[in-house]
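Quick one, T. Sequence first:
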Amino acid sequence: MNFSSDVFTLERDDGIATLWLDNPAERNAMGPVFWNDLPRAMEVVSDDDDVRAVVIAAKGEAFSVGLNLKSMGPMLMQSNTPGSAVHKRRTLYREAKRLQSTITAVADCPKPVIAAIHGYCLGGGIDLITACDIRLAASDGVFSVRETKIALTADLGTLQRLPRLIAAGHAAELIYTGKDITAERAREIGLVNDVFADGAAAIEAAQSMAGEIAANSPLSVQGSKAVMRAGEGRTVQEALDYVAVWNSAFLQSDDLTEAVTAFLEKRPPEFTGQ
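Structure tokens:
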């Protein structure tokens, strides 16, 4: 499936899809086209059986400075919406749900998603990276839950996902203060897995990790992601029951036969996802 966008570029090579935030003139601020096109991009990589891992990176000097207030401000204020106060509130609610679903499209991708972050990652940028499975950063990375500084309550996933990634006290500090933190601080508190010298090195590391993932059986990788997500909110026993049923359905695969055969023949396996 083809994909084109004015603010994204999608590259696919050897099992890895790299989705570039490609609006450097506006430091990858998230305007209307961003919110329309991100779900389309995630649908393309999700449905492409040749894609086994996804990297989200950015072109220009920043990963993203967050919501484009110039283009999205009228929506927030409902200044151009006719009708009663109730109608305006309902319209705003529906728009919030639409924007939420855009970020959730990243979290719902069945393939592992790695964020490679450099420069500013503010506001909506935090929503985006917390929906990814793994986060790598350049040393110049700057992270901020910026909404509280502009009189907003973050409503696109940060308040729900960030406390699952880092300790509650660290999450509260970032959310309540809206402060900037460095990449090193982000690594200390567990927001990012690792920090690299610059943006190019972070992207290279993300693509290398994606290659490691792509070399494994897509059935087992995607199954592991699905099972881990299903375990959220369940007891250990309920989660164990779930994975037992999952493996009852998917264990007897061609990939498993290939893994055993390759081991006995002392060669790297070649997985097909069948």
